[in-house]
Amino acid sequence: MPSKPRVSVIVPAYNCAPLIGRTLTSVQQQDFQDWEVIVIEDASKDDTWDACNALEPDPRLQLLRNPKNLGSAGTRNRGINAARGDYIAFLDADDRWYPNFLSTQLKVLTSSPGIHCVCSDFDLIDENDAITFASSARFAYDTSHPLQRHTLASLWESSRNLIPSTFIAERQVLEKVGGFQEGYWEDINFWLRLGAADFDIFETPAVLASYRLHSNQKTKNAERMRVARAEAYRTFVTGYPDAVRRIPRDSVRRKLHELYVSAGDVPFWLEHDYAAASRYYLLAMRQDPFDMNTAAKLAWSHTPDIVRRTVRSLRQSLAR
User: Fold this and answer.
1) Residue 20 belongs to domain spanning
2) For the whole prediction, is pTM greater than 0.85?
């Protein structure tokens, strides 16, 4: 077995046979080379396992295979348990790092004793590696560019997504926080739990990675993510009440109200599942009892079907 590496890179791999080679090549092309890669194949339905085994041999590459699908949280945690490095980084099997990712992030991590975990900005790419959205932060990092500090309060308020493929942390951070928890949008849950454990996330103001947005993700996942985001926050509030009390109360109520209304609108407008919509609207009204717009949608959700059908029929008649 090779000597202990400085960085362990965790790559959960599920149904990514066409892309896993490109992802791992982006690690091999790093200008910092003291790393190991742990690829965990998560019982894929395609040829991902064969694609992994067909890669050019590299003593720093370790392949593991889950006997059954564990999902991204369980798969990342298995990688964490197998990691030997002082630092642990995550890279999804369809994303890529730019060559200076590791060297830059390690420079930031070692620049101050108060920095324990970092992320970075990123580009969006499509299935063909073409950049579909280029971040404005194009410059390479140096000390003249201030880091953005994500505290528990700012993570709570933020509507911007951090992505695991730009994240790297000291091993002790993962050990204290306990890795990823399975459930709704485990990434958001993980960021909030880092804040609850007093680990601020420092964002390097440089583009160091590319995140692949598949064409079917834009429509298929957008509405589902609104519900998942609301559930991620709800479970955090339930599971970490002491941490939530450290966030300004108005901020907590405002954010939960916004998320619950957004989640309720998915079944209300798109699926006409009024029972599901009602559940979220009730949660929203508890945060803001004077929201008359949500109150109206809640009332409509509890209106008998025959009345709703009659109203729709009248609207159609009047529209002719």
Assistant:
1) 7-217
2) yes
